[in-house]
Amino acid sequence: MKNSNSEISNRIIFIILIIFSFVIIAVNKGLDEMPSPYEMNKESIIAELKVALKSEFDLFYPLSIDTVDGGYFSDINYKWQLQGKQNKMIVTQARHVWSNANASMYYKKKEPFFKYAKHGFEFLKNKMWDKKYGGFFDLVDREGKPISTDGKIMKYAYGNAFAIYGLAAYYQAFGDTAALHLAQKTFYWMERHSYDPKYGGYFQFMKRNGTPYKNGFIGTPPKDQNSMIHILEAFTQLYKVWHNNLVKERLSSLFYLIRDTVIGSKPYLTLFMQRDCTPLSFRDSSREVWKKHIELDKISYGHNVETAYLLLEASDALGIKDDTKTIQVGKAMDDFALAHGWDNVHGGIYDGGYQFKGEDSVKVVQTTKQWWNQIEALNSFLMMSQIFPHDKHNYYDKFCRQWQYIKEYLIDHKYGGWYWNSIDTDPQARYMPKATIWKCNYHTTRGLINCIRRLESER
What we know:
The structure is a single chain. This protein is mainly alpha-helical. Helices cover 53% and strands 5% of the residues. A hairpin with an 8-residue loop joins strand 8 (352-354) and strand 9.
């Protein structure tokens, strides 16, 4: 009996040592190579994504509906209480319209999404559209009166693009031709005032009467990737509901400009450009000068993964057959984000990187991880896992880890919603607003719905 007990004890010790060895190996290799707890359980992930999606709509509506002055409230604190000036930006207002239209199409039911979307559409049409000069105001106060920037009433290609995006989706979901007509009217307004017939692309900054700032505005160049990719997104949505030849032509030219010039041979986007698309760069400047302009010249990992998706979406809308090049460009963008921006310890992608002059490696220069980057990565990794199911990067495993990361560090389990920054690198994000003019439920609901649809399609 004594020998038997001794043998059992030795076996237990041996098993413990083996387990401990595997743990040490896993730690040494980093989280990136540890097995994902959800790798084989897609139904659990689908259920969790659906809960997160429902929460985004339940939290924002009807709380954000301004029943007095119209449109949607912008400022909501971390406890989901209205707090702030409640200025209204065309981007946010249009995104709310789009989110509700998209939700109606996903859930295959009209209410309550039609009521919420129509509320926003009326505000766009009656308050944010400039009845004198056309185009949408960028920023108005709660009542709908335009707010100036540096003493000027401004209009932006970026904002007008989101108006098209929301209006086209509203028409697609509910069949309201008034929304389609306003989207068409906005497209032609951008064609007259924002489109650059010489070099292609769109001028971002315009005066109230539509005159473009061809050399930029207050030190910011006239063209940028963020405006381009979202104009691409808007025209993709518009072309789905309006097969207009000029829309297709502009969508196609923008698609190739982004893929072949703004990205080009490098696996990331140039952030800002002069009119002829010459990149703005501070690589030859001192570190101090570059740091002051970091938002103009960095590698944005979030835009990498988002653009990979938007390019493939546009390619599909254009009907490009066997678009191997765009697929490879998108893959390279995701792979670059994983190679240089992925956190091997906790998961998630960092906000920014940079390759300094004379250095071989790319360094992480912004360790924060904003909510929109993370949901775009989730969507993009899952997309790549379906295109390249046996790739060495194991995109599905990255998708699983990304969802685990989001649940642990970005979703607020006390008050609900998504933090602005993930709390592993920014613990104070717990107390940051849940909504501003730059944060609503557009990125989150789009990404969650896309992921649910992709996973359910595999059934």
